[in-house]
Write a structure and sequence with these properties.
The chain has 379 residues and is mostly helical. It folds into two domains: 206 residues, no CATH class; 74 residues, no CATH class. The chain is 80% helix and 0% strand. It contains 18 helices and no strands. It is globular.
Length: 379
């Protein structure tokens, strides 16, 4: 049996297992281990060990639990709620103002947590009831929450970009900096769209009624101060990193400590909040570790088969496709997979195949990381 056929069977078996509802890391890891043992016998067992050692020695991986911990502290202690109340009061008088505030809220929260699901959860629990209660169109509300939460994985710190950096062996800092401008630009485009649509059809996103607008200035300033706290935590974490004063891991630790101290000083770090934060942080961090480990093992088998080179020859020599056509086909495959997989699952499934192929086609892997992130959120 040729190596190309083995690679196709590996990918097909993995997709079949995912369709049957198996866990992502289980499907990827099982296929990788079985293929390694069948191809190389007992020597194939060293692939998993090598992948585990490579994972544990990757220093930037320490940022993963730090960012997740910080995000859950802000969420569980309700500090994120204060941010939405600030947007609610200060932007509510504007047509579509609450929707604009929701976009900004979820971009900030998702960025602090590094996960788009964090912004989605907060948007659904905090913003959704408020928007519907004030007569916002249901379709606009749904679009605002989904679009806003998807932008968080572009604005640093992004857990998905950390995972991509691990698999593609690219510097995390460069990926973060590359994602800032596209993320903010897309957020600005969403905001402009909301304002224009609200101006054309005021019934879609009405302004707050006068009785809710009229609030003492002292109360508005109090809400402004409380709402600026999470933004201040984000600044304390990112400014030293951008200026080169701290490393990536040090900045993540600063963010986690700052969020914890903020919750303590506000009297919100209760036993229940702390337990929920630690439990969720450990659970999600362990999940990502297993997923990365499985992806590294699967990718090592693919490399050993020479599957990437074979696929490149198939597209370029036999089918006669140019690099841009191949790249477009790769992006279209994300749209199909997005119907039943999330962004993290898509990354670990296709990255062992796509990343070497993209590099062989002559594309920059930093640029492709941002393109991948945007495409998976569309998917």
């Amino acid at each position: 049996m040729s190596h190309e056929l083995i690679a196709i069977l590996m990918f097909s078996t993995m997709m079949l297992m995912l369709f049957t509802g198996q866990r992502v890391f289980g499907a990827i890891g099982f296929v990788g281990v079985v293929a390694a043992l069948l191809l190389w016998g007992d020597g194939g067992s060293t692939i998993g060990f090598s992948a585990a050692m490579k994972l544990m020695k990757w220093y930037p991986l320490l940022t993963l639990p730090m960012f997740i911990f910080m995000g859950y502290v802000l969420s569980e202690s309700k500090i994120a709620d204060d941010l939405y109340k600030m947007f609610h009061v200060w932007m509510g008088p504007l047509r579509g103002g609450l929707a604009v505030g929701t976009i900004l809220l979820m971009v900030l929260i998702s960025a602090m947590n590094g996960l788009s699901v964090a912004g989605m959860a907060i948007g659904a629990t905090i913003a959704l009831p408020e928007l519907l209660k004030r007569g916002y169109d249901k379709r606009m509300v749904t679009g605002v929450i989904q679009a806003g939460s998807s932008l968080g994985i572009l604005v640093p710190p992004s857990v998905v970009l950390v995972l991509y950096a691990m698999i593609a062996r690219q510097p995390v800092g460069q990926l973060w900096l590359a994602g800032v401008f596209p993320g903010l630009m897309m957020a600005a485009m969403f905001i402009v769209y909301i304002l224009v649509r609200s101006w054309i059809n005021p019934a879609l996103a009405p302004a707050l009624p006068p009785d809710e607008r009229n609030m003492p200035r002292a109360e508005k300033l109090r809400l402004l101060t409380a709402g600026l706290l999470p933004i201040g935590i984000f600044a304390v974490m990112m400014v030293p990193f951008v200026n080169g004063w701290t490393s990536l891991v040090e900045s993540s630790a600063i963010g986690a400590i700052a969020a914890f101290l903020a919750a303590v000083l506000k009297g919100r770090m209760t036993k229940q909040v702390f337990e929920n934060t630690v439990r969720n942080t450990l659970g999600i961090s362990a999940m990502f570790m297993w997923i990365i480990l499985a992806a590294l093992g699967f990718g090592a088998v693919f490399d050993g088969l020479g599957a990437v080179k074979a696929i490149e020859n198939l597209f370029t020599d036999q089918l006669g496709l140019n690099p841009w056509m191949i790249l477009i086909l790769m992006q279209l495959s994300f749209i199909v997979m997005g119907t039943f997989l999330d962004d993290t699952a898509m990354l670990v499934i296709v990255a062992p195949l796509y990343v070497p192929l993209v590099s062989a086609l002559g594309f920059d892997l930093i640029w492709y990381g941002v393109l991948y992130t945007i495409t998976t959120q569309i998917a």
